[in-house]
Design brief:
Helix content is 71%, strand content 0%. By secondary structure, it is mainly alpha-helical. The chain has one domain. Helix 10 runs antiparallel to helix 19 and helix 15 packs across helix 16. The longest helix is centred in the middle third of the chain and has 30 residues.
Length: 416
Amino acid sequence: MWPSRKLFTAIYLLAAAVRLLLVFGAGHYETGRPEAIKIAIALATKGAFADPYVIPTGPTAHAPPLYPALIAPFYAIYGDTPAADVGRIALSCLTASVEYALLPLVSVALGLGVWPGIFAGVGGALLPLHLWPECMGEFENTWAALLLECATLLFARFLRAPSLEWRRAARGGVFCGAALLMAPNLLPAFLAFGAIAAWKLRPGPVAAARLAGAWCAAALLVLSPWMVRNYRELGGFVLVRDNFALELDVSNNDLATGNLTENTGNAHFAKYHPHQSVAAAQEIVRGGELAFERKVMSRALGWIGAHPGRFAQLSLERTWLFWFPRVPRFRWAYGLCSIFSLAGLALLLRQRRFTGVVLTAVVIAHAAVYCVIQNVLRYEHPIWWVEVLVMGWMAHQVWLRVRPTARPAASDNFRG
């Protein structure tokens, strides 16, 4: 039985009320100008996807296109003002609330039953540990979380009624292509879904090639206008965004730590990142963004090759910080959530194997890249809903033990 609309609405309104009250009631919100916001302002004022750095640098692919385009109307209507920021933040609060309202549906789709999703949805709505990264709307991470959650929901429903029809694979490719235009860091999770489907369904070589081809063709069709734009404006191939080299460089150097906030205050960042460095931004103006990124990639790989021990140490630190973030307040709470959610995934792998495989694949696929680049809480947020759902399932298991007469909400239809 699928959860009702009333349940979705109740959890959504609860989550939205808590977030809007905490953000606007306390009057404590972020009005900075990171790259995605600067691009949105350029879209609103110049009609150009451009100028993400400290000085105008022209066309860019530093950020994926959909999020700046989504928030640009606020800056077109209200200008570069706090009123536009309020609209952006309110949109982010309302979007984040959908993550928790969807958890009962995801729980049922994964074969856990509705109650673990209710526990998770209500708990996540009432305890907004990720309030800052999910509500400030400075970056696309809130939408990345929602799209990854929707993708998991659709994938689980697909596995309930699998089909080797190429049209269904093509529809999945359209969804994934659109999602990548919002958050290209979802690609590893989408590839993990493909691997799981191949393992579960075991199609023959011809059928597998047909399905993979339909998925890739549909995804590339959606991505192609943006790729053509990047080739024309930047002079080279860019699938979605081009800033990985820059992130790799500021994450791996003599002054780097595993934490993004600390790295943005060091001398390397001030000298080489065009968000702070006028000299670096002027280099982009002279030679173009792609040439700048190639130079930065060469520097980053050169440092990694010359310092393998330090790179390994930083990678371990970043892996630790992904799960145990260095936050100003309630650090213990984040640590406990990570411990409980990782323990819960291990239990799911034992007790409900396929459900555990899907959620573990999502977590590993998303987290892997943050072993090599710096960490901050917003990078973890796209899989926060997984952690909340797993903790909700564990809470429900405890409830069943306390109330032994209670019947399990659903059997695991994904045992394999």
